[in-house]
Amino acid sequence: MHILITGGCGFLGARLARTLLAQGSLALAGAPAQPLARVVLADRVAPPADLQADARVQSIQGDLGEQLAGGALPLAEVQAVFHLAAAVSGECEADFDLGMRSNLDATRQLLEGCRRAGHAPVFVFSSSVAVFGDSPEQRLPAVIEDTSLPTPQNSYGIQKFIGEQLVADYTRKGFVQGRNVRLMTVSVRPGRPNGAASSFLSGMLREPLAGERARCPVAPETAVALSSPGNTVRGILRAATASSAEWGARTAVNLPALTTTVGEMAQALERVAGKEATALIDWEPDAQVAKIITGWPSRFAPKRALALGLAADESFEAILRDYVRENPQAVRLAVKG
Amino acid sequence: MHILITGGCGFLGARLARTLLAQGSLALAGAPAQPLARVVLADRVAPPADLQADARVQSIQGDLGEQLAGGALPLAEVQAVFHLAAAVSGECEADFDLGMRSNLDATRQLLEGCRRAGHAPVFVFSSSVAVFGDSPEQRLPAVIEDTSLPTPQNSYGIQKFIGEQLVADYTRKGFVQGRNVRLMTVSVRPGRPNGAASSFLSGMLREPLAGERARCPVAPETAVALSSPGNTVRGILRAATASSAEWGARTAVNLPALTTTVGEMAQALERVAGKEATALIDWEPDAQVAKIITGWPSRFAPKRALALGLAADESFEAILRDYVRENPQAVRLAVKG
């Protein structure tokens, strides 16, 4: 089996690739498991060394739109496409045309390429919780269901929601076997701050664990909906393995999220790494960031995801202990328990 | 004031143009009324004679996508755009690429043209009840609200729903002052059958009134949601006159619809033109048409439209009497009352 991951060298794409390579096979859309012969990583950047070293990995580096226009991706040979590549929300707000090109045009080109390939590959589209946004004219419901109306409040969310519609119709037409999944805010992301409004939701844990100061720009009682990297990849993979009947409607599935508060996250950090860790958090409210964060939904009733056997992370402390275990090189404080 | 109507020579576009020209002015987006200097009709076909004869009418004939690519439309000079041009649902199902080009690409090009013009014109986008569709995997709610999740079951509906998203984001960015309105099934349409699944909802009245036989492919108890041509144009115009505050959210407004049944429509025909008329209806069920028609929603709670002062037609008999009054040349049977 050949698999394509766009954005395959990013944090989630690389983790998905590692998970697939480790399990060595994939049971696609309810079919029996097939051994993985090749994982194609399409990305602007080169793969991490461990992926580069795996003989089953093929890296195709470049701009996705150009790759698709030039026929550089082996779409006729892949049984599954995981479309994770995207310009992030901040970029899309700063450069409208970039977002339209990277998120809308490239998604449509990729779907067109699959349509021309003619064998209806499984197509997992990573949409986002950013399709939901609160506004004074249209309040979000208190609890988001799979059937709640998305009302995106930024271009990134609009482009993701349009992508869902394209995937749905290309699926209905039999051009692909589409699976729209909405990813929640991922925490704890390893690495460095990325400039997103949500960046602090990883940074306020990651930096103190590394012995560095971190800023928390919202009040402790701020509610957020999070998913660990591992649980997020689990949701993406389940979208690929579910049969059409298990998957159900062509509308998007909200992946499960742990609802917690920023204060509870800090308490979990204290349980894991002591007061020494939480003393490194600077609680400096930023009204603009707070407005963005509180405009996101924090409570979900993800019925379809639960029916697929998915679940939210059990606690933020569990998420944090996973991070510590998976990123020993990034943790400088002594860990308890 | 200069106004552009795409699809301006079609049935609804021409009626909108006549209404605007008759009132002679327009109070745009809550501003004081301004006299109408020019109404530009962009369409593949030439305008009806009465519109062609009006000195304020300018007709620009051709393919909308080509007109936009070639800069043939005076976007810099228009204060309002009514975007009615579209490939219809049957065409979009038969020719996927045609639908994507006519409904998605042309809408985006038109929005881009307005953005480049730089003065944020009012942009009324005629979306459609076709964004709603019932499927075994995702049932429609019994009553459709403005916040009900669209689940389009055909490419036309998907393309219209994507258009709504584009209009919403171009509005949020300040490129246009967008107004997404969802048109209901229009009945009684004058003219000839048009091959749409809904065509009989006009034909079963129009043809008998002209003394011709007509087929009704669904059972009398089939519920439908309809709007007269006059009421539909009233809704489109109200979208243009509403201030941003009156309009509210950037999501679409469902225009009011009269919920009736096909049997009640036949009874109204009998009250208007006697048993002689209803004897001309052939009740010949067609399972395929019935499946499409019963997949459409028939009950709406159009809160936003009602708050804007719009209302459904009062009865199907009133719709029918309007048709008879407006189309005397098409009525051959004697009319009662």
From TrEMBL, chains A, B:
InterPro entries: DenD, Epimerase_deHydtase, NAD(P)-bd_dom_sf. The keyword NADP applies. It comes from the Bacteria. Keywords: Carbohydrate metabolism, NADP. Pfam families: Epimerase (PF01370). GO terms for molecular function: oxidoreductase activity. Residues 3-215 form the NAD-dependent epimerase/dehydratase domain. NCBIfam families: ErythonDh (NF043036). This is NAD-dependent epimerase/dehydratase family protein. It comes from Paenacidovorax monticola.
